[in-house]
Amino acid sequence: MQKQRKIDRRRPSRDFFLALMAGITILTVVTVGFLYYQARLVGRIARIPAFEFQLPIGLPFFGQTAQGSSFTDLFSGAGWLNTTGTTLYQDFAMTTLSYPPKVEWEKLADKEVEKIKEKVFFVRLEEDGTDKRCLNDKCLTQKGLELFLDGQKISLPSELRTPELLNISIGAIYPVRNIISNGADKFWLLGGVVKDGGQYRGYVYKFDPSASSGQAPEFTKIFEDSDFLSPYPGVFGFGGTSDNWVAIYGAYEGIAWQTKTKNSFSSFHNISHFFPIRVMGDSVKLQEAKERFVSFRPEAIKNGKNWYVYSLTSGKPKLIKLVEDKEGLSTPLEAGKINAAWDLTENLGLDQGITSASFMLEKSGSLLALITKSDEENKTELRRFVDLGFDKSQPFEAVSSNINTLPGKVVSARISGLQKFLDGENMLFWLSNDGVFWKEAKPYETVVFTDPQPKLFWRVKFIPNEDLTTSPVLDRLGLEWQWVPN
User: Fold this and answer.
1) DSSP per residue over 111-123, as a string?
2) Within a 10 A sphere around the Cβ of 7, how many other Cβ atoms?
3) Are residues 39 and 53 in the same domain?
4) Would you say 106 and 382 are in contact if contact means Cβ atoms under 8 Å apart?
5) Domain range spanning residue 37?
6) What keywords would UniProt list here (predicted)?
7) pLDDT tens figures, 111-154
């Protein structure tokens, strides 16, 4: 009996077991709560808006507070690209990445030139700047600041009847191809530039003599007074068809609008971002370019979904390609909007002494070019410009150089600030913090690196389809990342 009592005294009491169970329960709750907090934190990082992402965020599982940073590549140069690993075409004027454009030039044989020279008509200015545009049996002529209809001088719109009028220009708009015209869908456009204090204000009018009331010519103002307000002097150019035309203000920094009409309803699209200083000027040394810049007179040709803008100004050759979005990739209001551009001026052969290039559209869809060379006593020649679209013979890609120059290791990152056009094709992205192991990245979704490293790279690959007429365009790419100080 005495022995049994000693053994009973060594057993844990009931209270001990209750306390032990309570401790285990509390430890379990704390552990689960901590793990849940980590999971929520990772998810919270993935959902943080761009403007908040740069704030330092404590990351318990990395042992210290991570710092935030950001970067945006506008593709104005190649300083942040790995040029060895990049095969995409970089347009330094438009500051974009795309598939490489494919074009061909054919110098016409003498026999072909003789055969067609009497049948072709190029829009060209006379030596004194006179411009004549005819629609059927009527011709509108611009001479200096004066306008003539079939040789008869006509009054300008009231806004242009001012001593501050800088210049005027005209364009002829024709009906849609393959549609029988009754004359109502043919009209002229008049552009005028007025100096307004320290700025320059542009006006655009539709001129249709058949709609005149009484003796006064009928001018209809198309745009708001502020649509073509610029700190730089310029001159207007036009082009297109009656249901889809463009007005371009050729200046140090261009302004352009696309006007589309369907079922008597007109929509207006600002496409000025395709005519920046680098495209309109002749140098990336902006101050020098501004001081010696001469405005060029733009002229536009529409060919299906493609547009070609060239210069009527001698000594200032230009060739800019614009591409409309496809109907299936847009909302009804955006369908057919010009959504991408390439500066093809270098393809004119400026190193061969070319001083001017005028274009006209052939029935085949190719462009005939009238080329003038300064080193051959202004000798002109005919060439055929064939636009083959884009090289999609293989996937093309771009790879960045190291973006992170901060004294620490990258623990997470995401692609943000992405701007792309005509992106109906596959455009795949990856991120890496060492340049060796890559993680697929979806825009605006965070990639967490479980092995922190001191570098950060991005990579994009364009996967081609069979449509060679268009290319997706990458206009800018931003990165936001978290890094832990060393």
Assistant:
1) HHHHHHTTT----
2) 8
3) no
4) no
5) 2-43
6) Membrane, Transmembrane, Transmembrane helix
7) 888 777 766 778 888 878 899 999 888 999 999 999 999 999 99
